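User: Predict the complex.
Assistant: Input components as received:
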Amino acid sequence: MSSSANDNSASEAPVFALDRREALPALIGRHEDFLIVAGLAGTARDIAALTENAANGFAMGGAMGGACMIGLGLALARRDRRVLVVTGDGELLMNVGALATIALPNPPNLSIICVDNGHYGETGYQKSHTSLGTDLEKMAQGAGIKLTRTVQNAADIPAGSQFLRQGNGTVFLLLRVDTGEPPVYKRIWDPAVSRAQFRAALAAK
Amino acid sequence: MNEQHVAAPTKWQDEVFDLLRRGGVTQFAYVPDAGHIILIDRSLADPDVHSIALTTEEEGVALIAGADLGGARGVLLMQSSGVGNCINMLSLINAGRFPFLTLVSMRGDFGEGNPWQYTMGQAVAPVLQAVGVTCLRAETPDEALAAVSAALTMVFQAGQAVAVLFTQKLLGAKRF
């Protein structure tokens, strides 16, 4: 599955056309299937809106570049649960070496979605590297992650949703979207509150 | 990484590893470092822990926060130069009130011969304290064991962020 997914996506030209407000919820499906770590800015709003700030989510508001590694620590701690990192192209680019770090242990209960709009939305929509030639799926492949895929057409979303849930190794999925705004939602800003909520919900199960 | 040290006794580092394991630490994150070689090798040899090789030290800060979200305990093993790579990521620890334990092998310290090491070596304690991490210095094996033991209580009972600094008086200065 991984090699055919790689072959298909690597040959496609980048298309930034999907609406994140539709594509991301469709891709994730039942959010309760996952423990979710969200990056800052756009993806924090995406996940806050999707989960209505539920206790299975932890969204960042700073410490840019940490989302994937929080996901790794969580996935290693809870092998009985599936962990989903949802981050943006800018957040991932800030610490892209984390993909190499994650590829070594390759936990099968970790999936990463990079919502790639090719821009730094939070700071005024300056173009990011991914608008200018950088391909983060290829960087994930180069880091050693075997299960990678790019979703940039609506028709590919159902297969992508399945791809996130397979158990052979860490999954990296690049979701290309347009520069439309993420949903407006009042997210939890205090990470200590979010941490306490997240841990209490996990401990109760 | 094959460095020769002035001081040879290393048994205390085996005892540090045993202390960490008894303290429930199951995630060991590191960038390869001669000063921590025994801890790193022990973690690699232990089937009950995750030994995570990082590309940069700040990854370890985020890893440990993730471990805590899942109810596990981690430690970040790094050299003093790596402390500088962690500073903004430590806002996650500080603002989220995550427990955080790091063991720092010092350079740019007692007897250092490499001028490149002094900038971060001398900055370790002030910058860590500036972002809310308490520093405990150890200059002898007895002090190292006492500091690690104290740090385990401070971090995992009281929820603090603590760095134990293994000084070059303890580790020995690298010879060039």
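DSSP finds eight helices and six strands in chain B.
Let me know if you want any component modeled separately.
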